[in-house]
Amino acid sequence: MVNQFKNDDMLEISKSLLEEALGKGYQIMVLQIRSKDPNQNMWVFKKVQEEQLEKYIVKLDAAQATYHYIFEAIEDFHYHPISGKISLPWQ
């Protein structure tokens, strides 16, 4: 797999970053590259049309992908922060 991420473009995941993504209409974050060091995991935000969201989740489950609903990640961030980095699709 070709690494499509540049480390310079990656940001640490924070609650404020998740809130910004949710405000821009992103609903899901999907693990793209799993690292032995969880702090180096690479995630992407996904924006899915509301009527397609259920199908998209079924597809992720079938592929055994790791993902989080962004609104749940925000609610649980204090107790279960998500480790890793993310590239912002809006920059």
Unreliable stretches covering 5 or more consecutive residues: 1-5
Rounded to an integer in angstroms, the radius of gyration calculated over CA atoms is 13 Å
Helix content: 25-40%
- What is the count of β-strands? 5
User: Helix and strand succession?
Assistant: EHEEHEHE
The order of strands across the largest sheet is 1-5-3-2-4
Query: What proportion of the residues form beta strands (DSSP E)?
Result: 15-25%
The helix-and-strand class reads: alpha+beta
- Envelope shape: globular
Query: Helix tally?
Result: 3
The largest sheet, given as strand count, sense and whether it forms a barrel, is: 5 strands, mixed
Mean pLDDT: 88
Distance between the termini: 24 Å
Structure description:
The chain has helices at 15-23, 53-62, 70-76, and strands spanning 10-12, 28-33, 42-46, 67-69, 85-87. With 91 residues, it is α+β, with helices and mostly antiparallel strands. The longest helix has 10 residues, at 53-62. It is globular and about 30 Å long.
Brief overview, please?
The protein has 91 residues and is an alpha+beta fold. Helices cover 29% and strands 22% of the residues.
What are the SSEs and their pairings?
Blueprint (H helix, E strand, L loop, with lengths): L9 E3 L2 H9 L4 E6 L8 E5 L6 H10 L4 E3 H7 L8 E3 L4
Parallel strand pairs: 3-5
Antiparallel strand pairs: 1-5, 2-3, 2-4
Helix pairs in contact: 1-3
List keywords for this structure.
alpha+beta, five-stranded mixed sheet, disordered N terminus
